[in-house]
Amino acid sequence: MQKEEVFTELIQEHQALLYKVTSIYTENKEDQDDLFQEVVYQLWKYFDSFRNDSKITTWMYRVAMNTSITFIKKKKRRPDSVPIADVFLKQSDTNDDAYDERLKLLYQHLKHLNTLEKGLIFLLLEGKSYNEIADITGLSASNVGTKISRIKKKLKTNMTKQ
Q1: At what angle do helices 97-110 and 141-160 cross, to 10 degrees?
Q2: Whole-Å CA distances, 69 to 7, 50, 65, 93, 120
Q3: How confident is the model at residue 23 (pLDDT cuts 50, 70, 90)?
Q4: Which tens digits make up the pLDDT trace of 137-157?
Q5: Could you give the CA distance from residue 95 to residue 33 in angstroms, rounded to a whole number?
Q6: CA-based Rg of the chain, rounded to a whole angstrom?
Q7: In the prediction, which pLDDT does 78 show?
Q8: Closest to 131 in 3D by CA, of 54, 56, 51
Q9: pLDDT (0 to 100) of residue 83
Q10: CB within 8 A of 64, min separation 6: which ones?
Q11: Closest CA to 31 of 81, 65, 106, 77
């Protein structure tokens, strides 16, 4: 298989992962689409440098999160942009209104976390272990555990205030 075919299959296979990462760092669909394109570009740009030292998804998470953080920093330098709509990490397919409301409330509180906190909680919600999160973020596993514990406490405190 040629490089382009392998890369295209990789993106198609892990498209949901990329959309999840981009949705947590953006406030509207247009920004999410822009960020998604930038992430795919960065993955393509560095595709040849992937050394198979980790799982391909670990590498993709790392590139996607680093690209998202850079995107946020650039966006903050352009203060004239205004968010048009709130976008949730994923839309619920259930008809359970109570679940949908709880999910909406959680996502509203996640938007108030700082960049690192958002990334750590996102990876935890994705079912990643502390060791996997450490590989993706470059933190130690014990540091990941400490930070996640503090984030959970912060979320719990903020959510019980309402």
Answers
A1: 120
A2: 23, 20, 6, 29, 13
A3: confident
A4: 889 999 999 999 999 999 888
A5: 27
A6: 17
A7: 59
A8: 54
A9: 45
A10: 17, 18, 21, 22, 39, 43
A11: 81
Which amino acid belongs to residue 82? Answer: V
In this structure, what token pair is assigned to residue 162? Answer: 């309402």
Helix/strand/coil for 135? helix
Q: Which residue has the tokens 């440098």?
A: 49
DSSP states along 116-154:
HHHHHHHHHHTT--HHHHHHHHS--HHHHHHHHHHHHHH
Cα–chain-centroid distance for residue 52?
Answer: 22
Can you give the pLDDT at residue 60?
93
Nearest to 54 by CA among 118, 108, 132: 132
Give the three-class secondary structure for 159.
helix
Q: Is the pLDDT of residue 104 over 50?
A: yes
Interatomic CA distance for residues 22 and 111, integer angstroms: 13
